[in-house]
Amino acid sequence: MHSKQTALVLLSGGLDSSVLLHHVHQSNNYDSIQALGYNYGQRHLRELDCAQAQVDMLPHGRLKIVDISFMGGLLAEGTSLVSEGAEVPDLDSLSEDDLSQPPTYVPNRNMMLLSIAAAYAEAEGIRDIYYGAQAHDEYGYWDCTEEFLTRINAVLSLNRKDAITVHAPFVGMKKNELVSRGVELGVNFARTWSCYRGGENPCETCPTCVERSNAFRDAGESDPLLKV
Questions:
Q1: Domains, in order of start, for the chain
Q2: β partners of residue 166
């Protein structure tokens, strides 16, 4: 068990990272939790309001928002997830090839965000970073795999003095399992956001909306963001 330490959690305000935040808070012996959220030019920037709401539920939580919004313009040709990119597709419009790495994938996003987090953690004397990688049901991202986790930790272990460890406790879990875990932890799913289109209400057809809907269904739970 960890003792008398701070954990750093990458927190988008989405379902996975919100469950992760409360999982780390309730399952580990950390004195405090710090969270990092990122503005990287995403369409669904409203998710960061949810990130703040989740941190506000913790007795010793703190959220730092890192502005790297310039990445939106830099990566616009490679992803539909940023506001300057192509339109977000419906899941059912994607081909079999697309599902292995869909247009909503952001080039090297997790490596980029984890690198920034590792630098911040080292400066703050934090040794444990958590991020919400999980086994996607409908499509896949290479930077949410056990192999990616193993290799990025191998790189970080090269630090001769202050090695940082990245943890992804949900990396082998499906999203419906995360919903069930979140219910156990008392996560307020009404203060999470998933829809990539970032409108007033979930579109219910983009890849993450479909995955979220299926997850709640398979977990036998109702999504509070959807009108009955």
A1: 6-219 (3.40.50.620)
A2: 129
Classify strands 128-130 and 61-67 as parallel, antiparallel or unpaired.
unpaired
pLDDT band for position 3 (cuts 50, 70, 90): very low
A 10 A CB-CB count for 60 gives: 11
Is residue 14 within 8 A of residue 193, CB to CB? The reply is: yes
Query: What strands, in cross-sheet order, belong to the sheet with 128-130?
Result: 61-67, 32-39, 6-10, 128-130, 165-167
Bridge partners (DSSP) of residue 34 are 8, 62
Distance in angstroms (rounded) separating the CA atoms of residues 104 and 82: 9
Of 128, 123, 94, 101, the residue nearest 210 (C-alpha): 94
Of residues 175, 179, 86, the one with CA closest to residue 138: 175
Whether residue 2 is predicted with pLDDT greater than 70 in this model: the reply is: no
Task: Please indicate, yes or no, whether the overall pTM of this predicted structure exceeds 0.85.
Answer: yes
